[in-house]
Amino acid sequence: MSVLNLQQIMSSRFRTSAAADAQTKSLMEVLGLSTKAAVARLAIGRSLSLGAFNGEAVDAKGLEIPAASLFSQDDVTIWVGLILTHARSHGIALDGMDAFRSALRQHWHRGAAMLIDDWRSSGENFDQFVGTLVKRRADLPDVGTSARTQKPSAANVTSAEDQSSQLTKALGEIGVGAEVKGVVHGPRLSRYKVALRDVNQLDKLRKGLERLALAMSLRDMMPALGHGDEAKTVTIDIPRAPKSWTTASKIEFLEALGAVSGAGAELMVCPGMTVVGDPVLFDLRTAPHLLVGGATGQGKSVCVHAILSSLIVKHTPATLQLALMDPKRVEFSIYAKSRFLWRDEIAVGADAARETLRALVSEMDARYERMSELGVNNIGDLAAKGVRLPFIVACVDELADLIMQDRSVEAEIIRLAQMARAAGIHLILATQRPDAKTFSGLVRSNIPARIALTVQKASESQIILDEGGAEDLLGRGDMIVKLAGSSLVRAHGYYLTPGDVENIVAR
Ligand SMILES: Nc1ncnc2c1ncn2[C@@H]1O[C@H](COP(=O)(O)OP(=O)(O)OP(=O)(O)O)[C@@H](O)[C@H]1O
């Protein structure tokens, strides 16, 4: 600690954000804590167990507190050590008092928002809240976790599995003048940064990708080309053999969701990680409806459970209800006793699914009526007028089955897809049989967000994504995420076991 010293820290004052200040006050009340410092320590501890900050701007308009109230002489060394270790582990430069104050402010801000989320997720039940904290070890910051020096999803790739030299050689063989400048090994693919000798090499490389795969003996695994972050650089993603893959599980999943908080995070879902291991997060409110398709056994169910779990983690039954429809009668039994179930039951079989879709349309109409009475356009504004309605996320597990059994449901689906968003109702439609007969153009054009797991043919990828690509995925939760207005994102799903989902659903 050459630039920071403990004396300086103990004689400083620390200021939190306006949001954290307000949250600290409510947490004092609901938890019965007598000082803001006690909440602050809990919040900082909660945040320390997570990864890097997400870049959100955090103001310094909240409470100011002297270090002597925040820490004691006995424990200041531990707290400072934990904050410094966290910063070092996540590439945050703490080179002076200003940087230290800012880091502490961000921890307090992030941790307070997360404690509020925890409180809501516990159904505002004190024992359950404390149980959750203890389970997460949030009240005892864990040096082992904070000191992690690589992303949980980073692969441990041996030098034999690093293909930099084969790539350099193969680029030469296909006549592309380029140099491999670096590599990031993600969960399943390695991303090579390649500097081209001149920009004309790009066309040659694009046209030569298949020959590159052949030169590197990649068999049917195609490399993918992307733009680099510097002039004349590109990235080439190359799949590795499955033995060096890493699978991210519930811990990383919860960590990724824990890092997003606040009003904007209400319907944030996190199905997987990018090629380089960063969480893929998107907001179902803006999506606003999602189609998930993939051949049987490729990870569609795991993906849907991760999406529903993302929502449950951030809500209480008062703020979220799940309308689950299971025409095949197999998928949603884990949720049977969940307090989040809309109308306390799963619609099993085609008849019940049709009834549920009709009931959802009626609910939507009733919500529209309420909005019009109060002169507002959406449930957010309705809440501002004191009428708080839960979001309803409606999920059909096998849409193709349902449509084949009863074509008439298409009308309800289209109506909901066109209008339900403002009423706080969102659709997730899953299928293992993406074909043009079951998914009319009208259904597809009203469901803008898509996730494709591995499919058998390019034509199926076309149905889900409106383009090919999903037929080349690697299976086991490998996916392509398409959101309106953004380019496609390759992702690898979090692997939640049935037991993990059961625990989350039992909240
Ligand atoms: N994200 C993942 N990471 C690693 N393995 C996964 C992942 N997702 C799924 N798998 C593997 O794939 C298997 C099948 O997954 P899942 O049950 O979700 O497939 P599915 O496409 O829903 O199949 P079906 O349509 O037959 O129900 C899982 O049991 C697991 O072994």
TrEMBL record:
Keywords: ATP-binding, DNA-binding, Nucleotide-binding
Record GO terms (molecular function): ATP binding; DNA binding
Pfam families: FtsK_alpha, FtsK_SpoIIIE
Entry keyword ATP-binding: yes
Biased composition (Polar residues): 146-162
FtsK domain span: 277-462
SUPFAM superfamilies cross-referenced by the UniProt entry: P-loop containing nucleoside triphosphate hydrolases
Residues involved in ATP binding: 294-301
Superkingdom classification of source: Bacteria
Region (Disordered): 143-162
Subunit: Homohexamer. Forms a ring that surrounds DNA.
Record-stated family: Belongs to the FtsK/SpoIIIE/SftA family.
PANTHER family in alphabetical order: DNA TRANSLOCASE FTSK (PTHR22683:SF41), SPORULATION PROTEIN RELATED (PTHR22683)
Stated name of the protein: FtsK domain-containing protein
Organism: Aureimonas jatrophae
UniProt lineage: Bacteria, Pseudomonadati, Pseudomonadota, Alphaproteobacteria, Hyphomicrobiales
